[in-house]
Specification:
Elements: H1 2-21, E1 25-32, E2 35-51, E3 53-72, H2 78-95, E4 102-113, H3 119-127, E5 131-133, E6 141-150, E7 155-158, E8 171-172, E9 178-179
Parallel strand pairs: 3-4, 4-6
Antiparallel strand pairs: 1-2, 2-3, 5-6, 6-7, 8-9
Helix pairs in contact: 2-3
Length: 182
């Protein structure tokens, strides 16, 4: 059973990496702020409005999105979720440079476990909120999505902001379909 769940973790990480590759630049096994993450992905999107021709732009701005995926084999409690959320908050200072050209930055923190989450951990994640504006929003803002993936119970949990993308983290069942228990 243990090997089966380890295989499931490796398959899920590989599947997640493939999903990210469509829209993100992906790095595996990266160390950020002395924390090893299994997948680090980043995406930059340019938005602009035009007049008459493509060369005449009225305005333009960028949105940035980062995803940090960390996999654990242990049972995860509230303290581990709190520590991971503090790590995500500290990443804001590392990744975000306030600018009038960047409208928003979103950081998705994904914590995967093969042994389950405590009820307190799930409740903490669901209540977690983080949003920071820079110069009253003139230089953009930043939000954090917190997503928990329980491969043992095949369940997904997230904070309110994470619900926007929760369907992208569906767990494929061994029969080939997708499971979306919530």
């Amino acid at each position: 059973m243990e090997e089966n769940i380890t295989d499931k973790l490796e398959l899920y990480l590989k599947d997640l990496e493939e999903r990210y590759r469509y829209y993100y630049e992906v790095e595996k096994n990266r160390k950020i702020l002395d924390v090893k993450v299994d997948i680090f992905a980043r995406s930059y999107t340019e938005h602009f409005r035009q007049v008459l021709t493509k060369s005449i732009k009225i305005d333009q701005h960028y949105t940035k999105e980062y995803a940090v995926v960390k996999a654990e084999r242990d049972f995860i409690g509230k303290n581990e979720i709190d520590k991971f959320s503090q790590f995500l908050k500290s990443l804001i200072n590392e990744l975000v440079t306030p600018s009038v050209d960047v409208m928003s930055t979103t950081l998705s923190g994904v914590l995967i476990t093969t042994s389950g989450f405590s009820e307190e951990a799930v409740n903490f994640a669901k209540k977690f909120k983080f949003s920071k504006s820079f110069l009253l929003g003139i230089k953009g803002w930043c939000d954090i999505r917190l997503i928990l993936v329980d491969l043992k119970e095949e369940k997904l949990y997230s904070n309110q902001k994470g619900k926007e993308v929760l369907s992208a983290y569906k767990i494929k069942s061994s029969s080939g379909g997708e499971k979306t228990k919530k």
